[in-house]
Amino acid sequence: MKNIIHTELAPKALGPYSQGVEINGMLFVSGQVAINPETGKLVEGGIQEQTKQVLQNIAAILDAAGYQFSDVVKSTVLLNDMSDFAAMNEIYAQFYTENQPARAAYSVKGLPINALVEIETIAVK
What we know:
It is built from two helices and eight strands, in the order βββββαβαββ. With 125 residues, it is of the alpha+beta class. Strands 1-2-3-8-6-7 form a six-stranded mixed β-sheet, with helices on one face. Strands 4-5 form a two-stranded antiparallel sheet. It has a single domain, classed as CATH 3.30.1330.40.
């Protein structure tokens, strides 16, 4: 059975999708951008500030579903500019300190609300 995950500690969906969906011991976290859930606005600052907020949003969704970063098996990182990769990676490494998940990173033409980074995640128990 499919379980829809929602928490007020992460931003509301910007469209017709769920923050996360759990099924058969797997959690699929929708792409998160750097929206502060308290203000509903994109955080100020550059790629590092945005990456930190994105990962905090992911942490809130993981927690709401009973998962943690150690359960993440795959992440996909979308960057507005690939020259931000190293700076994003510095913050990303602070959240995945061991047993890092598989990951792909792409540069895209644009992201919702002019965000610099979006990350989607898959976790398994």
